[in-house]
Automatic annotation (TrEMBL):
Its main location: plastid. It holds the Pfam family Ribosomal_S16. GO terms for molecular function: structural constituent of ribosome. The keyword Aminoacyl-tRNA synthetase does not apply. Keywords: Chloroplast, Plastid, Ribonucleoprotein, Ribosomal protein. SUPFAM superfamilies: Ribosomal protein S16. The keyword Transcription regulation does not apply. GO terms for biological process: mitochondrial translation. This is Small ribosomal subunit protein bS16c.
Length: 88
């Protein structure tokens, strides 16, 4: 199963995160399938590759709680068909 989750980057006390599609069994810093976005909590900036995110969501990828909140804020779920919005 594939999840959309955050992968920590940056230095100490200056964390930035990549939003990646990754296998559930991989660790946080493990090999990802594809980088689909970027999140900087300090500057509150978000970059999302929406077509790729929609592709993974349509194939059954589950976003983690934080990623789901970021996607809701960016209104990505409005672009999905209503029958595809079944998440944990």
């Amino acid at each position: 199963m594939v999840k959309l989750r955050l992968k920590r980057c940056g230095r100490k006390q200056r964390a930035v995160y990549r939003i990646v599609a990754i296998d559930v069994r991989s660790r946080r810093e493990g090999k990802d399938l594809r980088k689909v976005g970027f999140y900087d909590p300090i500057k509150n900036q978000t970059y999302l590759n929406v077509p790729v995110i929609l592709y993974f969501l349509e194939k059954g990828a589950q976003p983690t709680g934080t990623v789901q909140n970021l996607l809701k804020k960016a209104e990505v779920f409005k672009e999905l068909p209503s029958n595809q919005m079944k998440f944990n």
